[in-house]
């Protein structure tokens, strides 16, 4: 749209094949460490029951089976709320929570980064203070508040608090600060009001930042399952249901638990793989003529 | 009304717009965060108890604070511990994640996959895996936290290495090194992503013109990449400090949590939380003032 574009940088110095191999090697080595828990869960989920109970546990699976996944779906289909309902709830909460948080946090971040208004400094220190505050302590007052607002056991309890969460605002503010004032001035001179400047200049030029916050928030919300706030079965999110399945019999359902955790990890990974490309691509093209 | 709005000077308008943009967020913030924070501040001065009629408390002045500072030996000790821990782990995390981010910025086959892999700890750490596999011996230590991750000393890798014929001592060293690296990768997923985003905001022309002038990669890193990354560096340092201080495995956090939920002493718990928060704030303030002058913004 109104993103300032420039031609892609010309041919870059080519690195030798050897260099590529070294870089790949280092990253792969470090990658093993990061991926290990996931791989471990993946392997565990394919283990038959006798291998699951083996001690010490092995890293390899002798006879891989799909039993764990089958039993997971069997347990799930026996529940009186269908599994799709849980997934639907999770998607609703994750998507709406992400949209609200990203939209309002970045809207608030823009003036904090680029405007002057009374109380700006005080506001920013409160935000940083809120970031540092131990969330567990506000937990009980927050619960009482939710109860008073009649939000307990509604989607609202899971979604609405994210409107005022400070992490996204903090990140967005730091990113927007780096945006050159020149583009903003130019858009104002061209007659765009602040709303237009924000939605058509600031946001498109900050896609990497927005995507970063989206990734955080989505991952965060996907795994967000405060049991105290939701008690009716039909409103519970996927994770709560999976925990119930796994927790009802931790030994016999260990395999099913691992299968559940693998399934649960897949959507955030997909989101990350899809969006990280956006984090990269846009900024390599954006710049100043 | 509209005509009068047109007469308002531009600077004034900007202020109004600014407040308008911040307003929805502020509303949410006050309602869901500020209010509970103030309530917990009130609790800090009370001896709150759970009674059949609900929460009841009477004003006790500074008793909770005094108790934490003078009577509870664990509070100061854990506080100092987490400070020392932070002093060495934050630089390590920053250097490591910068290193990984610079590597991941390179173009190579499978880059997207590798980026996803380096972000995996974030997905897992906040994920269900930790809770579900709690019963599992192998992942006993996997709940993360400052204490280091015991994943590799829990028998899994030991067995594999013994099978391969390594000596006991060598395995010990190996385990130690590995669990340290593991801990590091475990806690720097977010930082890597932030640095990556920061690296991509550096315009290409800086590199082009510097390479025309004959700068080598090494010089480019110190003279362009690093200075241009300083805003992101500040963000990352602040994030990492907060993250290490508020980690679930942190001693003080555990104390605060236990005081509230196993001992049901909400007042004491709130008092500790507020003191801890203020201590972090002071520390962050010092760091921020120290780093602020060294930040480079691209303005042209």
Estimated structural class of chain B: mainly alpha
Number of DSSP E strands of chain A: 0
Q: What is the number of beta strands of chain B?
A: 2
End-to-end distance of chain A: 16 Å
Number of structural domains of chain A: 1
Number of domains of chain B: 2
Oligomer: heterodimer
The number of distinct helices of chain A, counting runs of at least 4 residues, comes to: 13
What does this structure look like?
The complex is a heterodimer of chains A (289) and B (300). In chain A, helix 5 (120-132) crosses helix 8. By secondary structure, chain A is mainly alpha-helical. Residues 5-13 and 282-289 of chain A have low confidence and may be disordered. Chain A is built from 13 helices and no strands. Chain A has one domain (17-285): MetI-like fold (Orthogonal Bundle), CATH 1.10.3720.10. Chain B has 2 domains: 1-31, no CATH class; 63-292, MetI-like (MetI-like fold), CATH 1.10.3720. In chain B, 73% of the residues lie in helices and 2% in strands. In chain B, a hairpin with a 2-residue loop joins strand 1 (49-51) and strand 2. In chain B, helix 2 (10-43) runs antiparallel to helix 13 (266-292), helix 3 packs across helix 4 and helix 11 (217-245) runs antiparallel to helix 13 (266-292). The longest helix of chain B has 34 residues, at 10-43. The radius of gyration of chain B is 25 Å and the shape is flat. The model of chain B is unreliable at 130-155 (pLDDT under 50). Chains A and B meet through helix 1, helix 4, helix 5, helix 6 and helix 8 of A and helix 2, helix 4, helix 5, helix 6 and helix 7 of B.
Key attributes of the depicted protein:
heterodimer, A: 289 residues, mainly alpha, MetI-like fold, 0% strand, globular, disordered C terminus, B: 300 residues, 2 domains, two-stranded antiparallel ribbon, 13 helices, 2 strands, flat
């Amino acid at each position: 749209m109104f993103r300032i574009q420039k031609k892609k940088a010309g041919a870059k110095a080519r690195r030798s094949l050897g260099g590529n191999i070294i870089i790949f090697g280092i990253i792969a080595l470090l990658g093993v460490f990061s991926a290990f828990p996931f791989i471990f869960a993946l392997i565990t989920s394919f283990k038959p029951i006798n291998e699951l109970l083996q001690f010490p546990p092995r890293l390899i699976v002798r006879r891989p089976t799909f039993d764990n996944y089958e039993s997971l779906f069997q347990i799930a289909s026996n529940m009186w709320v269908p599994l799709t309902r849980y997934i639907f709830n999770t998607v609703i909460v994750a998507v709406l929570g992400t949209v609200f948080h990203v939209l309002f946090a970045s809207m608030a971040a823009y003036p904090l980064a680029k405007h002057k208004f009374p109380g700006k400094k005080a506001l920013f220190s409160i935000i940083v203070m809120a970031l540092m505050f131990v969330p567990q302590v506000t937990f009980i007052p927050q619960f009482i508040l939710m109860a008073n607002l009649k939000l307990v056991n509604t989607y609202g309890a899971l979604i609405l608090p994210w409107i005022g969460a400070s992490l996204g605002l903090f990140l967005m503010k730091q990113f927007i600060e780096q945006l050159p004032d020149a583009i903003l001035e130019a858009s104002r001179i061209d007659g765009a009001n602040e709303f237009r400047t924000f939605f058509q200049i600031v946001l498109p030029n900050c896609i990497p930042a927005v995507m970063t916050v989206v990734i955080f928030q989505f991952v965060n919300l996907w795994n967000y399952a405060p049991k105290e706030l939701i008690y009716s079965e039909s409103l519970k999110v996927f994770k709560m249901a999976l925990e119930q399945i796994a927790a009802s019999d931790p030994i016999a359902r260990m395999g099913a638990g691992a299968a559940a955790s693998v399934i649960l990890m897949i959507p955030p990974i997909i989101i990350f793989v899809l969006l990280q490309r956006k984090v990269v691509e846009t900024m390599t093209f954006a710049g100043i003529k | 009304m509209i005509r009068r709005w047109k007469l308002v000077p531009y600077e004034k308008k900007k202020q109004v717009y600014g407040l308008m943009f911040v307003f929805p967020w502020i509303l949410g913030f006050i309602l869901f965060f500020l209010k509970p924070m103030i309530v917990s501040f009130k609790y800090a001065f009370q001896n709150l108890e759970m009674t059949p009629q609900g929460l009841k408390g009477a004003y006790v002045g500074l008793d909770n604070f005094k108790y934490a500072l003078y009577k509870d030996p664990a509070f100061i000790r854990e506080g100092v511990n987490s400070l020392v821990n932070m002093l060495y782990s934050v630089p390590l995390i920053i250097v490591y994640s910068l290193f990984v981010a610079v590597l991941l910025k390179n173009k190579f086959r499978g880059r997207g996959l590798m980026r996803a892999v380096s972000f995996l700890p974030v997905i897992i750490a906040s994920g269900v895996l930790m809770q579900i596999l709690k019963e599992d011996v192998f992942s006993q230590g996997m709940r993360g936290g400052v204490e280091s991750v015991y994943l590799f000393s829990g028998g899994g890798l030991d067995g594999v290495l013994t099978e391969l014929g390594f000596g006991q001592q060598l395995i010990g060293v190996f385990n130690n090194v590995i669990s340290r690296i593991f801990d590091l990768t475990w806690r720097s997923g977010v930082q890597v992503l932030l640095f990556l985003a920061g690296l991509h905001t550096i315009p290409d022309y800086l590199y082009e013109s510097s390479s025309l002038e004959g700068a080598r990669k090494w010089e480019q890193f110190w003279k362009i990449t690093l200075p241009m990354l300083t805003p992101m560096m500040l963000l990352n340092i602040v994030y990492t400090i907060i993250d290490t201080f508020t980690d679930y495995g942190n001693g003080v956090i555990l104390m605060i949590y236990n005081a509230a939920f196993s001992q049901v002493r909400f007042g004491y718990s709130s008092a500790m939380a507020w003191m801890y928060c203020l201590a972090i704030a002071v520390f962050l303030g010092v760091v921020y003032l120290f780093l602020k002058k060294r930040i480079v913004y691209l303005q042209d």
